[in-house]
Structure formats: C-alpha cells, structure tokens
Amino acid sequence: TGVQTCALPIFSGCKYCEELINELDSRGIVYTTLDANENGKLADEVEDLIGANTYPITIVEVKDLVPFYLFRANVYTQIGESIANKAVKVGVVDIKTMAAIISKLI
Question: What is the pTM for the complete model shown?
Fold first, then answer.
C-alpha cells in the first residue's frame, strides 16, 4: 500500500512491546523502534496527541493517507477516533489485533 514509515516508540522491559515486536517479526513487517526513555520529548508529544500513554504505540504513515496511531487500549471506548482530521488513533485491546491492523495498512 506504500507505507512510508512504521515506528514503534517502546520502553525496554515492556512485555506488550516485546509481544508486538515478536508478532511483527513473525509476519515479516519492517519497522523502526524508538526507545521512549531516550526519546522522551517525542514520546510525550505522541502521548499528548493521542491522549493515551499505554504502550506499545505504533505510528504508521501510509502514502496519501493521514497517519495512524495505534496504541494498547485499556477499554473498548478508546477504539477508533479521528484527531482533528490530521490523523487516526486506534486503540487496540490485544497485540495480535494490533499486528493484524498494521499488516493490513502495509
């Protein structure tokens, strides 16, 4: 579909981050990880933008579409919403579903 980037701001030791990395690897999906501890300003900006700080957070930019911000949602009410027509945030309750959405976007 023409993915420009698939970035994962992660925290080392985060079991959900590790689970997503394993799932993406098993699907052959190419991504870049960013250590949220070392890139605190970026992590804070992303958290503020999507209104969530549950990791992993995945930023998928697809050519000719607004960026998609996927994050681990704690509740179903956080799922799917537009951010000022500039991006789409998608709260996903389980990691396998997050990986499946990423693979569909790619």
Answer: 0.80
